[in-house]
Amino acid sequence: MIKIESLHIEELRGIRKLSINMNRERFAVVGPNGSGKSGIIDALEFGLTGEIGRLTGRGQSDVSVAEHGPHVASAKQPEKAFVTVKVFIPKLNKSATITRYVKNKSKPTIVPNDPAIVKVFDEVKDHPEMALSRRDIVKFILIEPAKRSEAVQRLLKLDEIGQTRKLLNTAKNRVESAQKNAEGMLSSSGQTLSQAVGVPQAKVADILKHANTRRKLLGLKELGELTPETRIDEGVVPDKDAKPFDKKTAVNDLKAFIDFSNASKASLEAERATVENSFSQLEGDPKLMAAFRRQDFYEAGIGFISGPQCPLCDHEWPSEQHLRDHVGEKIDQSKTAKKIQDDIRAAGLTISAECARVLGILAPVRKIAADLDDKDLKAAIAGYEQAVRDAQAASGTIAGLHKARAALKEPGISTSKDFQAKLDAFLKVVEAKPDLTDTHAAQAYLNTVNLRVEDLRKAKKAKVKADAAAKAAKATYDTYCEVMEAELTSLYEEVKDDFAAYYRDINHDNELKFNAKFLPSEGALDFKVSFFEEGLFPPAAYHSEGHQDGMGLCLYLALMKKLFGDQFTFALLDDVVMSVDAGHRLQLCKMLKSKFPNTQFILTTHERMWAEQMKTTHLVEKKNVLTLYGWTLDGGPIAESGSEIWSEIDTAIKKNNPNAAAAALRHHLEFVCRVVAQELGANPQFKMDGNYDLGDLLTANRKKVKALFADAVASEQSWGNVENVKRVEAMRQAMNTANAQLADEDGYLNKNVHFNEWVNMTGEEFAPVAAAFRGLLDQFRCGKCQTWLYVAYDGRNPIAFRCDCQSLNLVKKPANGTT
Amino acid sequence: MVSVAGKITDEFVKNLKSGADIRPDQIAKLESLLKQGKSPKVDDLVAVFNLDPPPTQPAEEGAK
């Protein structure tokens, strides 16, 4: 997305005023603890995102950017604390600056204010994961699977996928509920039609047979078939003068409903028990119940979060992420209730369908009461219908069922005793009505059956539509889940392969067959790694802390590669691999350089040796190393930017500051002597802890190079390479001279090597010591390409003594074939 | 930059099209809802599933 060109910080964190040129290149900040390194990372992060991860992470609820972002001396003046970051945007081939004040952190000034540039800054703001600290590494490695899944999903911006899956599931549930209702309506339509026809379960043949009997009586043409267009009462002319009451059908309808309501007292027993028992279980666990009750609220609420302010109570959280984490935890608590919810939902669907059936069977009774204008019964029916509709609506959601729980304790879709009494009395009134004439009875019969056939047709259509909708919703949800699972599995596979490859690069000395396995399951991501081909284990089982740090970084890099692809142009690595030993850090430098050539890493470390390794491997060029020497409250970091080691030493000597010169020289010697020992294959006296001091290494290196010169002379002589023999002799002489000059300073040498006694020297006295060491070190490197001389191997056999440019390339193998 | 969500939506639409349980017009509406840049509403999703089939074109009828 971007590369950093420069950074200007004022009054932020531990920094009063600091400008750094990062040149769009990899950059390192080195300095002791408390020298302000992380303050620079904080400033960059703040400038680009408006947040500071270290102040807003988990367990940081008592600190905030607004209060603790400004320098402590400007704590009450957030308007003074600001950062200006100049970036280069590769895809636009443009540079731009963003200036952000703590006082008004959500409204940065972007120049130029071009929409395409603003969009890029918005994207950057959306990716705070570009800053990684050692604490963040723990999120990926030493964490329970559910939390790891969250961390990984958040990094890969997968939250949206989970949200979509949930919405599709909710829609599917609603459509399925409607399908159940349509099923209930269809069932009741069939039943009321049967009541009208006068048979227990009317079939087409029954309908035609009974209808044709009436049609014949009325002199109408008999029906041959029942098509979707057939009208059962075709040709029936209503009697304008008489309003015949179809007593027989009315009695059937009334009896059917009375029988149904009596039978329904025992129906839904299992569903009612499920609802009751499930809610009791929830009530038995107050925490579960609390999470359960508020689940819809939490899930809806998280969608309203936009910024660090709570959308409900306006409480200001340290960051939006902090608030999201808080609500997310609440949602997690409710997951235990999922199974219970599923049971309740299934029972609710059955209850809802039964309600639809009740309403269907009640409909003819309502019509009879209306025809006979029984106001009392009409009111009772209206009240009962409303109660059933309420129960139906409540059955569609968990919250609704919980609210209607008391009512559901009653048997079935129960009718009150008063209502039953009214129905019984009304039945007697209907039965007392006179029978119709045969003609009127036939007309009424055909009219009623026709109406109910129409109702059945509508119910069938509605059911077909509801079935199709449910089928579509289920296919949609299932397909989404399948695709999501396949994509995530493939994504994790790819990330896993990259992760393992990076880790092998760093640990090629002993873990060449390292592998890993990601085991994604619903809401969790289990993670296992191989250990010396002995099997797969959790990362913390056998690997050291240093190896775990390496794993964390490798997983982060693999995820970032997956997320950004070739747009992974920038990352802040704040003291991330301090537990990794020097040898593996060297490999890490090489891996970062080779695998991420277009990524601008900005690294901090308190170890000068690692900084030197970054330079030696050209992970970071010398001009891109900012060395911090300390920090003061008044001045902030003490930095001497852009000078490489010898100019630092010279500067300190000129300033008559032998302490600073000596410290820099000591660190440099300690590092260089290790590099030289490694490159030459020098053998200091073995120490189990590998803690070689400068004296050990200097002695071993001198001894080794002496032996190499001797071998080279012998080999080159055997091949007749006269020029090379002369060259080696000259190098041997130069080395002797350098050693002699150092010996002249012998009075200081042992003290220099073992103790820091330069404190009693002046800058002038220290200058020849530094010059002598520099002269000696120059003998270990190529004057042309400046790389350290090294022994090249073919397998385990040394074949040459050379430099990178091979202007020096001395054969190790003599003409007679022995080494 | 890889959008995993976008990739999943594309693949999801492709798979839906290869099935027979949901009509093309419904798939098109779903795709539009999922790609609108914000979370769709449940009501809108339900409406897609309940969408009536588009009227058959006379030309198609003729072809049939």
Structure description:
The complex is a heterodimer of chains A (819) and B (64). Chain A is elongated, with a radius of gyration of 42 Å. Chain A is built from 29 helices and 17 strands. In chain A, the strands form four sheets. A six-stranded mixed β-sheet of chain A has the order 7-11-12-3-13-14, sandwiched between helices. In chain A, strands 2-1-4-5-6 form a five-stranded antiparallel β-sheet, with helices on one face. Chain A is of the alpha+beta class and 819 residues long. The model of chain A is unreliable at 752-756 (pLDDT under 50). Chain B has 64 residues and is an all-alpha fold. Chain B contains four helices and no strands. In chain B, 20% of the residues are buried. The chains are: A alpha+beta (819), B mainly alpha (64). At the A-B interface, helix 7, helix 19 and helix 21 of A face helix 1, helix 2 and helix 3 of B.
Radius of gyration of chain A: 42 Å
Number of helices of chain B: 4
Helix content of chain B: 55-70%
Give the overall pLDDT of chain B as a whole number.
82
Q: Judging from the principal axes of the Cα atoms, what is the shape of chain A? A: elongated
Rounded average pLDDT of chain A: 82
Strand content of chain A: 5-15%
For the record, give the distance between the C-alpha atoms at the N and C termini of chain B, rounded to a whole number.
Answer: 46 Å
Give unreliable regions of chain B as ranges.
59-64
Side by side, the strands of the main sheet of chain A go 7-11-12-3-13-14
Overall SS class of chain A? alpha+beta
Strand content of chain B: under 5%
- Can you tell me the overall shape of chain B? flat
What is the total tally of β strands of chain B? Answer: 0
- Main sheet specs of chain B: none
Secondary structure category of chain B: mainly alpha
Our count of helices of chain A gives 29
Largest sheet of chain A: 6 strands, mixed
Multimerization state:
heterodimer
Output the radius of gyration of chain B.
Answer: 14 Å
